[in-house]
Amino acid sequence: MPAINQEICTGCRTCQTYCTVDAILFENKKCHIDADLCTECYVCLRMKVCPENAIFAQDLVGFYKQFQHVISDPVENHGVTGVTGRGTEEVKTNDVSGRVKKGYVGFSIDMGRPGMGVYLRDAEKVAMAMASAGFMLAPQEESPLAALMPDNRTGKLVDECHDYRLLSVIIEGRCELKKAKDVLRALQKVEKEIDTVFSVGLISRVDENGACEALEYLDELGIPRPHRGKVNPGLGRPLSTD
Ligand code: SF4
Ligand code: SF4
Asked: Does 17 have pLDDT greater than 90?
């Protein structure tokens, strides 16, 4: 993790303006990094923000600590998915992966934001609530977060990582269309129990007549329909009719 050499730091506070989550504290005329607040995003290191070069990297101790850094830092490659940072393919490649088939919907829950971050204990609450409602969490090869789940059918994360704070993280997977309303209800309930924000990505097939049942569920639950979206035209394999 990053640290500040107290012998070199002049207390100019320049670094504080760059920290993504206010993890650099000013005390006794010097700055230091609060290990519990730091997301290991490495912005302060990578951007060389300190004019005195007082910020340095310490060894990350423990497998899960490495994981925290890899997900929070958008330029690190995640060894399991092969994608940088928290990134995943979501449904962008559905034309060839066919992850969301007819009769299914996908969800990608984007938790945390710069300035706020997300503790993994909160990501676990959301993942477990969704799993209890019939959501099938994506496996490790599709989702970095799943690498922290001994059993991705439950959404529970390894205890060691609960207090790790990340810049943001994505929970993703799919469920049968008939379970989608239960999953949305679970999200409505659990969002009152966490200490961060999330946005919901709903991934749904449109039928031959242009209808999308999942959007009607949003209406029924009083959730505003999205103003924007991404369209996957279905020109690859599996075929749009599969
Ligand atoms: S920018 Fe460098 S010298 Fe200035 S407060 Fe931060 S660590 Fe200290
Ligand atoms: S690694 Fe990121 S969160 Fe930690 S002190 Fe540096 S900028 Fe802040």
From this structure: yes
CATH code for the part of the protein at 77-220: 3.30.70.1710
Name the residue ranges covered by the structural domains of the chain.
2-59, 77-220
Percent of the chain whose pLDDT exceeds 90: 62
Instruction: Name the amino acid, one letter, at 147.
Output: A
Say how far apart CA 126 and CA 187 lie, in whole Å: 7
Contact 25 CB / ligand 1 (< 6 Å): no
Nearest to 88 by CA among 137, 149, 153, 121: 137
Asked if residues 155 and 130 have their Cβ atoms less than 8 Å apart, the reply is yes
Q: Are 38 and 119 in contact (CB under 8 A)?
A: no
Task: Report the nearest-CA residue for atom 4 of ligand 2.
Answer: 38
Q: Is the CB of 3 under 6 A from ligand 1?
A: no
2-59 matches 77-220 in fold: yes
Residue 177 pLDDT more than 80?
Answer: yes
114-167 tens-digit pLDDT: 889 999 999 999 999 999 999 999 988 788 888 899 999 999 999 999 999 999
Q: How far is ligand 2, taken at its centre, from the CA of residue 198, in Å?
A: 21
Say which CATH topology domain 2-59 has.
Alpha-Beta Plaits (3.30.70)
User: How many angstroms is it from 46 CA to the middle of ligand 2?
Assistant: 10
Q: Whose CA is nearest to atom 4 of ligand 1?
A: 12
35 and 25 in contact (C-beta within 8 Å)? no
Token reading at 118: 């997300």
pLDDT category of residue 238 using cuts at 50, 70 and 90: low
CA of residue 60 to ligand 1 center, whole Å? 21
Whether residue 6 is predicted with pLDDT greater than 70 in this model: the reply is yes
